[in-house]
Write a structure and sequence with these properties.
Elements (H helix, E strand, L loop, with lengths): L7 E2 H7 L5 H9 L3 E3 L2 E2 L6 E2 L5 E3 L2 E3 L6 E6 L28 E3 L7 E7 L2 H8 L7 E7 L5 H9 L1 E3 L2 E3 L3 E8 L2 E8 L6 H8 L4 E9 L2 E2 L8 E3 L2 H13 L2
Helix pairs in contact: 1-2
Length: about 240
């Protein structure tokens, strides 16, 4: 076997280093932030092999061990690794690890529930991209019961800031101690989508919790608790993201 058979494309190498999806890594290359053996990479398609040195913005990078974790994000925690105002982030909820990790599909500060954490850029990109149709299931508590008419509207789609926000499934349930409960399923995951949909229709969201992504369930994890995903779960999520491709 000659050395050329061991080489891989630079964008895949960067993704394996935890720098993001392959498309994101292509943008890093396009912006001139990558050096291969001391020279700035100026085009796509360059390959990396054993013994090559790759630096991003001056820092040497190397492939990492793949990390796949599930966190029950508590309310008030940010889905960012660093915060300029020293607020609590998801990183504060898990043990310190050397790999560069990030969230798969963010939850806003006041939302809680299932949060997948990884350093596998391609795997994360597939799970997040709307065209792969990976469903996310939420429980939403409101001050007032959602009317059947508004359930239908959310399924058809409501306009907010020029965007059509639509739910795959909405089901209104009985009231409890924390308010009126709805179950909502999304495939798109636009920024603050559920809160915006409910606000447009006149509902105040008291609590919002993601309970599932595809076949992965939050289960019995308490707020702030985490666990590693089992290999079968990682494969299952990869498979479900490929169905809609």
């Amino acid at each position: 076997m000659d050395d050329t058979t061991k080489k891989i494309r630079l964008q895949k190498y960067l993704a394996d280093c935890g720098m993001g999806s392959r498309r994101a890594c292509e943008e890093i290359i396009e912006n001139g932030h990558v050096r291969l053996n001391g020279a700035v990479v100026e085009r796509q398609g360059v390959k990396v092999g054993p013994g090559d040195q790759v630096r991003v913005e001056g820092k040497r990078v190397a492939p990492q061990k793949s990390v796949y974790m599930l966190l029950n994000k508590p309310r008030g925690v940010l889905c960012t690794s660093k915060d300029t105002h020293d607020r609590q982030t998801f990183v504060d909820c898990i043990p310190a690890i050397s790999e560069r990790i990030y969230c798969v599909g963010r939850l806003d500060k006041e939302s809680e529930g299932l949060l997948i954490i990884t350093n596998d850029g391609d795997w994360a990109h597939r799970l997040m991209h709307p065209r792969h149709h990976v469903e996310k299931r939420y429980r939403v508590w409101t001050e007032n019961a959602v009317s059947p008419e508004h359930v239908v509207e959310m399924r058809k789609g409501v306009m907010s800031d020029g965007e059509l926000l639509r739910a795959v499934h909405v089901k209104s349930r009985k009231a409890g101690k924390t308010g009126h409960l709805c179950e909502v399923v999304l495939r798109e995951g636009r920024k603050r989508q559920i809160r915006r949909m409910f606000s447009i229709l006149g509902y105040s969201v008291k609590r919002l919790c993601r309970i599932a992504t595809g076949p992965l369930r939050l289960g019995k994890l308490r707020p702030g608790e985490w666990r590693h995903l089992r290999p079968g779960e990682v494969a299952m999520l990869r498979d479900v993201s490929e169905i809609g491709n």
